[in-house]
Amino acid sequence: CRDRLKNTLGHQTQTTCWDHPKMAELYQSLADLNNVRFSAYRTAMKLRRLQKALCLDLLSMPTACEVFDQHSLKQNEQLLDISQLVTCLTSLYQRLEQSHSHLVNVPLCVDMCLNWLLNVYDTGRTGKIRTLSFKTGIISLCKAHLEDKYRFLFRQVASATGFCDQRRLGLLLHDSIQIPRQLGEVASFGGSNIEPSVRSCFQFCRKLFSDTGLVTFLALI
């Protein structure tokens, strides 16, 4: 399946999309939730169904971070190609298989998660996504408290001294909003234009704000 996906990305047009059969079934089941009236509930139900289908509800944040470190995913603007993504995802799901062998089918999970990540972050079908995008997708759906996820993601875009500027925050919000966008729920979160959100975050604070002001960031989120 990964070879077919790789060949499709290399030879077909931007408007062409290939999905694993199981992913196509998942998308249909997500579409069935569109009759849920309230957007917050509808989005939450879609995210939960997606999380469980990818077995990321079994993934703790410490385990995810260990995999990131194992593969030296330090440069968040570095591009990862399909082979690198497959290698990282294989390591991740092999760890999950050790404690959840009855729930985790490693090849299927790798194919499904790869398919989802590319659909979310590689709409141009280049066969590559940024390291930050990979981390954002995995951490957003892993098993952890929301505040812990926010802290982790904030630190990915903060400088070595713990400061974050508008450009870096914009990168994080851009990658974050792609998840509800791909689920057809971006309108519920103010649309895909993140610039007003970035400006509002800095409206009442300094041009740069540090990790010591993370509580402010969490409140804004």
Automatic annotation (TrEMBL):
<protein>
    <submittedName>
        <fullName>Dystrophin</fullName>
    </submittedName>
</protein>
<dbReference type="GO" id="GO:0055001">
    <property type="term" value="P:muscle cell development"/>
</dbReference>
<feature type="domain" description="EF-hand">
    <location>
        <begin position="25"/>
        <end position="142"/>
    </location>
</feature>
<dbReference type="GO" id="GO:0042383">
    <property type="term" value="C:sarcolemma"/>
</dbReference>
<dbReference type="GO" id="GO:0099536">
    <property type="term" value="P:synaptic signaling"/>
</dbReference>
<dbReference type="InterPro" id="IPR050774">
    <property type="entry name" value="KCMF1/Dystrophin"/>
</dbReference>
<dbReference type="Pfam" id="PF09068">
    <property type="entry name" value="EF-hand_2"/>
</dbReference>
<feature type="domain" description="EF-hand">
    <location>
        <begin position="146"/>
        <end position="205"/>
    </location>
</feature>
<dbReference type="GO" id="GO:0045202">
    <property type="term" value="C:synapse"/>
</dbReference>
<dbReference type="InterPro" id="IPR015153">
    <property type="entry name" value="EF-hand_dom_typ1"/>
</dbReference>
<dbReference type="InterPro" id="IPR015154">
    <property type="entry name" value="EF-hand_dom_typ2"/>
</dbReference>
<dbReference type="GO" id="GO:0090257">
    <property type="term" value="P:regulation of muscle system process"/>
</dbReference>
<dbReference type="Pfam" id="PF09069">
    <property type="entry name" value="EF-hand_3"/>
</dbReference>
<dbReference type="GO" id="GO:0048666">
    <property type="term" value="P:neuron development"/>
</dbReference>
<dbReference type="InterPro" id="IPR011992">
    <property type="entry name" value="EF-hand-dom_pair"/>
</dbReference>
<dbReference type="GO" id="GO:0007519">
    <property type="term" value="P:skeletal muscle tissue development"/>
</dbReference>
